Amino acid sequence: MRQCQAMANKHESGDGNNMDKTQIRSANELPSLNIPEVIGTLSENIARDWLQSSETDILVGIHRGGAIIAAEIHQQLQQKHGLQTALGTLDINLYRDDFDQRGFGASSNANQVSYLPAAIDGKRVLMIDDVLYSGRSTRAAVNILFDYGRPLSISLAVLLDRGGRELPIAADFVAIRTELAATQRVKMDLESPYSLSLRNEPAPNRDR
Hints:
- With 208 residues, the chain is α/β, with parallel strands linked by helices.
- It contains 4 helices and 9 strands; from the N terminus they run ββαβαβαβαββββ.
- Strand 5, helix 4 and strand 6 form a beta-alpha-beta unit.
């Protein structure tokens, strides 16, 4: 993996992604990253390389971290580019393939619901999540979207790609890219100004 500064704005081509990737040298750098700045860079890349029209594009955040990031990006697109793109959220708990084992999870709450502001048939949907790991959360989110309709396309943007995929899923936009051990757990602090924390667990918890 090519190493570069955490906020380097250097384009890499040939891997199917449309964005200027941000990579880090070490997992230990995660807690010190300026997450609002990283989200801002992600927003600019989305505005430049994905958005086409407020009539056809929908941003959808995956609860909980992804919904918060999506709201931040949506606000920045409005303030900086005057774009009135629709914004929705997805609660994937009931659609996870391990729901019978983990239930709703400790991070769930009563305000965590799925909401799409418009019909998605024929629309371009950009799903947004905080951490991409095994790919199972993304799979669950795609299943929900098709319950609502048949979108023209579905793309994925994530704050952090930590590696360790179990399904053939890749993000189109990645703000931070690193490789973590199966015993390491990364979590986004959901209170502004936001941050990432890293901790070790005695057993793998592959739940992304």
